[in-house]
Amino acid sequence: MSRERAKHSTLPPVQQNIEKLEKVIKDGNSYGAQQMYKSISARYIAAERYSEALDILHSGACLQLQHGQVTCGAELATLYIETLVKAKVAYDDEILDRVRKIYKKFPQISVPEQLGDDDDMEQLAEALGAAKTRVDCCSSFLRAAIKWSADFGPHKHGSPEMHDMLAEYIYSESPEVDMAKVSSHFVRGKRPKKFASTLVNFLGKCYPGEDDLAIARAVLMYLSLGNLRDANLLMDEVKKQVQSRQIEFPESDLMQFVVYLLLTLERDALPLFRTLRQAYKSSIDREPAFNELLDEIAEKFYGVRRRNPLQGMFGDIFKMMGGELGM
């Protein structure tokens, strides 16, 4: 017991360490400060003084990011989440605010689009590399935070607010946007109108033939989670924003399918759902993931259990064996 007390007493008040480390960063020694943040917070964690370790890591992550040290800041941010897990801290609004504060410190810098001489090309290559690093670092931090929030909070898929943060950062900062990844986070968020405006922005700059795929994917992802309300809201909002911005809404068989599907899911109409899938098969097959999403939708809305390919194969084998044995 006395050893435990001694162990605790060797650690100074946390604010003293935070101020000391802040000075090291302000003096320009980000690397030295990084090692100190890690070693000092580790001592608090070893003493099970988690709250103080979290204060140190949070302060360090914010300061490093504020000073443009993205890799260092992201490392401390991820250690902050790992400490939440180690301490079994429950998800609440206070921690969400602290995660959001770190997120807002990640730089948001436009990648230059104009190309000129060789120097400009070199500058562009550097900017693209830096953008990729920012997105990778922020994504690692927020993915860890989402997993913690799913394990220690009420949301099965993790904090909706954190999903929205990640979707927005990936979309705004990625040199090449992966719209499927952006959509997968937005549909687990709680801002369908923001998702709609992001989609409309994407329509204005995507390759021909990607526009209707992006909208259909977004709607089907919402529906695969059983969320008919936001699927409809998204579709209505996209149409409204497209009209106000004078962008052409994609007219295709796939879009027609999505409109009919939304209407079909309003009622108990499994035969019609199956007929639609068959009738628009060639459009659905344009995106390999769509059939999987539609299987999930059938399960969510009509209770149709998805057939495991292996179960089907073994079932066929057993039937054959049964026939041979006269069963």
Automatic annotation (TrEMBL):
What processes does the entry annotate via GO biological process terms?
protein insertion into ER membrane
* A Pfam family hit: GET4
Similarity annotation: Belongs to the GET4 family.
Protein origin, superkingdom = Eukaryota
Q: Which organism is it from?
A: Dillenia turbinata
Write out the GO cellular component annotations.
Answer: cytosol
Q: What is this protein called?
A: Golgi to ER traffic protein 4
